[in-house]
Structure formats: C-alpha cells, structure tokens
Amino acid sequence: MIANAHSQTPLFAAFKQLIEQECFATQDQLADAMSGLGYNNITQTKVSRLLGKLGAIKATNYNNTRVYKLPNTQVVPRAKQKINSIVLDVQHNEMQIVIKTIAGGGIIIAKIVESMGESYGVLGCIPSDSTILVIPSNITKIEQTTQAIIHYLKVTTLTPAIPI
Q: How far apart (Å, rounded) are the C-alpha atoms in residues 82 and 39?
C-alpha cells in the first residue's frame, strides 16, 4: 500500500503518473523515463522500491506485452499516447461515425471518444473489440464531429474518408 510520506514527494507523484499514463515493460525503461523528467539518479533498485510502495503489478496489455500498472485502476488513456498505432480508420455515412481499430482497441478508443462529450458533437459510443459506432449529437455537423475525433485522437495516418 502507498505510504502517506512517500505520496507527498514530487518524485513519488511523478513516478505514479508515469505508471498511470504510459506502458513500461521493464524497470530500466521506468528509470530512463524518470531521467527524462529530470530525476537523474534513479536506479533499477530505486524503481523496484517505488513499484513496491505503489503496489504496482505486471499485467498483460492489448499488445500481449507484460507492463506495470496500478491494481484496481482503470485509467482512460490520454490522446498524447500512441493512439495512431491503435486507430486504423475513421469514416462516416452522414448518419453515424465508424472507427476501426486493431484487435482489442475498440473499448479503449471508445472511452477516449466518449470523454470528448457533446461539446465535440459526440452523443455516445458503442464499442466492439475492434470497431466503434459513434453516435453524433447532430448529424448535420457529422463532418465537423468526425474531424474533431481525428484531431482529438491526434490520428494522422488514415486512409481518405469514403462515405460508407
């Protein structure tokens, strides 16, 4: 369990944030990431201690890679993460928007898109394993909603949109 004294330090807070927002398979990767944040004297031993204090576990992610994560947490991925490696295509048929993802990416991307909310034109999402049906709040603005989704996800390598 997390000790209160440690949870107050900037080092501990930065380490916890890394675990919540990124995927790390090794302790050396975590040490390198901490160095990138300005914590230069972080050794594998220190990372191991921090992982223990956080109660971090290793779990399999959508790529079948074992990564560190916090137990019993479900963090919505941030758009700055490598979303374009998950999203394959975004199209609309003037009524609904369909997002195609790699296998296992549907639920993750649906959570991100739903978090956009109605201010971006998203009424709701229905995900499957690799496809998301996005219901726009206004079909007369479906092109703007589609572009907002593409921009929000920071997706840059999509095939040209062809109406379904």
A: 24
Q: Which tokens go with 84?
A: 């374009």
If residue 57 lies in a helix (H) or strand (E), which one and from where to where? strand 57-60
Topology (CATH) of 4-69: Arc Repressor Mutant, subunit A (1.10.10)
**Strands 66-69 and 57-60, bridge-based pairing:** antiparallel
Residue spans in the chain of domains classed CATH 3.30.1360.40: 83-152
Q: Which residue's structure tokens are 């947490």?
A: 73
Rounded to two decimals, the pTM is 0.49
Q: Is 34 exposed, middle or buried (0-12, 13-18, 19+ CB in 10 A)?
A: buried
Is 152 strand, coil or helix? helix
CB 80 within 8 A of CB 154: yes
Range 83-152 has CATH code 3.40.50.10240: no
% residues pLDDT > 70 (the chain): 77
Q: What is the pLDDT of residue 152?
A: 87
